[in-house]
Queue: 2 jobs
Job 1
Amino acid sequence: MKIIFFFFFFNCCHRVICQLTAESLSVGCPQFWWFLSLSRGPDKYSRFWYSLINFQVASYVRQKKDPYFGDGQRKKDWHNKEAIRRDSERVGNGEQGKPYPMTDAERVDQAYRENGFNIFVSDKISLNRSLPDIRHPNCKNKLYLEKLPNTSVIIPFHNEGWSSLLRTVHSVLNRSPPELIAEIVLVDDFSDREHLKKRLEDYMAQFPNVRILRTKKREGLIRTRMLGASMAIGDVITFLDSHCEANVNWLPPLLDRIARNRKTIVCPMIDVIDHDHFGYETQAGDAMRGAFDWEMYYKRIPIPPELQKLDPSDPFESPVMAGGLFAVDRKWFWELGGYDAGLEIWGGEQYEISFKVWMCGGRMEDIPCSRVGHIYRKYVPYKVPTGVSLARNLKRVAEVWMDEYAEYIYQRRPEYRHLSAGDVTAQKELRNNLNCKSFKWFMSEVAWDLPKFYPPVEPPAAAWGEIRNVGTGLCVDTKHGALGSPLRLESCVKDRGEAAWNNVQVFTFSWREDIRPGDPQHTKKFCFDAISHSSPVTLYDCHGMKGNQLWRYRRDKTLYHPVSSSCMDCSESDRKIFMNSCNPSSPTQQWIFEHTNSTVLEKFNRNLDL
Ligand SMILES: [Mn+2]
């Protein structure tokens, strides 16, 4: 009786206690120590708690070496030690993921034209090149289920370069346990480049489990993936892009999660293969959650402390996937209806599948121990149909899945409101039949941390309109300059009595405490940016991380830049705007915004030593 009680207790407390230990170890959670000290008390009951915690910690540590899960399934080390050793000995161009030393001749435009990345460099690197094992060190000791489902790896492509496509295939074959690869399916979306025809078929004939499918006309990425998935024979479908490199032991960690819960969609961590020199490295920020803003641009947000794991190499939940790299149980993918067949060409499909899996009883995770490199192109080398299909796709996703939240998109993209999304009855029926939850549920249970970074309703701005300098009477002007070009002083448009189309003199000091061109309803995604206490002030892509784009508009009318502890200054003679040591009595450091919201400004300045 006692034992039964114990196990019951063990199961239901497991999560809570791990959470507590996780927090206490990583951030010294005071509640936990309070809890522990209580548990140390003399009475029998609290001693029981204490022993339970110790047991938990001990079992956590032990689990690393224990070949069994709690449910009695055997686990094993899936690393291919021999292949890892062979890789480590490789030397040559691009080996170990090192940048290829480019000459000027290789840097020419021609190298990028057909692929969007430097194909000359790609051609000089071995198809079997080695990659650095940049996984979290804990990944080296992880065991996964001995019995894993096998997978079809679907690789759609359109006019892909020869060496980049082949390196994708080679990396999968070289770094996957052969018994887990049911097949690799290359799906050609109507390419016209010669090397992708007979030459590719002849080459792939040496690999019995590589198949080539071809569309009969240009179908676009979404339908090409669907064609591959519909022909797949594996238990799991793994989608990859056609210019990827799979890293050490990438596959077992993905399949393991699906084996444990077939409704989990898993994504590898996507590393960056440089489009110039093919060096291999992590993305900025590495492990982050997938998110979106309310114009439906894909975004990444930090993992909140509540979701951080004791072991940072453990899988974590992600609200939306980045796009083309994920694995899903084949039957579950079709139960979810695959992709909405009404989606055209490209775009929005990652939201559709992500919302669908979360809202309809599944889940989605990123797997830090599974890493796949991807070449982020310099530009897309072929014609992508214009915005219409993307807008239509996004509207379909919003109409079918986002309920009342679709309104937030239409407010920012009024042109979507009356755009036809086509017939969505089948999609709505599917949502009904699968008994899917509401988007409100998704926002409150899954993406609850998103509004902090991308609020559906934009909080009020602190100041906006022209920014007039007190000393010179001139205004800040972008002159429609390119990104990175410095801001200038210019005679104020308002004073000229005529329209001045070549000027941009309206700015918003936004709720993010950055300054952007545009009025509060229509800000651009460029921000005032300074890199030192004496640098010019330029416009740069807003990174949303405060830092060198954080400004204070102080009561003395100075624009203070906390990172460099300096103030925005200007000189009338050369009309330059630059950072300088603060001197609040200098009129050239005083700026007047046309409009201010004193409540918001006071809130911003409250925590500041003025
Ligand atoms: Mn790609």
Job 2
Amino acid sequence: MARVLIVGAGLTGSLCAALLRSELPQRPLSIALWDKARGAGGRMATSRSPHDPRCTADLGAQYITLRPAYAQKHRSFYEDLLTHGVLKPLTAPVEGMVMEEGSHNFVTPQGISSIVKHYLTESDADVFYDYHVTQIYLRDGKWEVCKKTGSPEQFDIVVLTIPVPQILQLEGDIVNIIKESQKQQLESVSYSSRYALGLFYEAGTWIDVPWAAQYITNNPCIRFISIDNKKRNIESSEVGPSVVVHTSVPFGIAHLEWNKEEVQAIILDHLENIMPGLPKPASIKCQKWRYSQVTKAIPNSPGQMTLHIKPLLVCGGDGFTHSNFDGCIDSAICIVETLKTNL
Ligand SMILES: Cc1cc2nc3c(=O)[nH]c(=O)nc-3n(C[C@H](O)[C@H](O)[C@H](O)COP(=O)(O)OP(=O)(O)OC[C@H]3O[C@@H](n4cnc5c(N)ncnc54)[C@H](O)[C@@H]3O)c2cc1C
């Protein structure tokens, strides 16, 4: 049985695993997913309050937008998530949102990471967290993959769905396997950076604003605020509300190497100016997104890049298309097509 390793349990990696399973039902494959984080989601991250795991906040992606250009092409993906209750139409008011005509927005009642979890369940893959890939070697026609802790393991096929700069940080034979022309393309990919704060409140706290989310245009630090449980239409008297704050990209870049506590204090100061009287949260999580959204993808958005054919080593993710749900679907489809033609 061929052993496939997918590195990255974000949207691209989880969907790759699910598509591999559904499109090759007669082919027995052992699929493993490794992620350096403690849970699934990647940039589709949902955080939980340490006081109450039912109080959650989407720190990365906020909602899914179906644009007319993808309405037909990705219809089955949206229908599947709607049928399983993973996606629901966004009905709460979002101030300052610019909508393309014919677009539809969706939220995830269980948090944005529930999309990734849905695909992981469909894939029936073996998922391992706290597995940080550091080196990849070619040994006897197989890939030997090393992680920060624990023994290396061998695989017939490796798929990398981690942000492009993190592909370039991997060590071992992979460094020489990446051709010079590919390296140049990979090095041309760029990402924005920003911070996100998640504020978690106790049950019964009332946040008195007429909107569920708001884009801010006149603040040097804050770009977006969401009353996250209201945005997801899951307000309840038993579970406290949560607030998500995204900084602007210029603020994120200017403070990228700062101490997180200092950055958190600055963001909270600005938040106090925008929302005076906001109650004190029970806990706060500060998340730095060094690789937030792709600002420049691989030229011509190929969806994947084949680094080696026998054995197969492929990379993909939003750096090979664009940074949203549809970009990740396109990449996952391209990766799976490459695997199907080379298996
Ligand atoms: C603040 C923010 C807001 C956004 N808003 C939206 C939105 O509203 N709508 C939308 O559609 N999209 C949005 N996006 C973009 C969207 O989240 C991404 O395009 C998408 O999640 C990328 O998925 P991915 O699987 O390609 O990569 P990732 O989600 O980055 O997954 C890669 C995974 O690889 C793991 N990893 C990295 N290096 C290693 C290693 N060496 N070993 C093991 N594991 C490793 C990481 O832990 C991560 O889990 C937003 C993103 C951010 C950050």
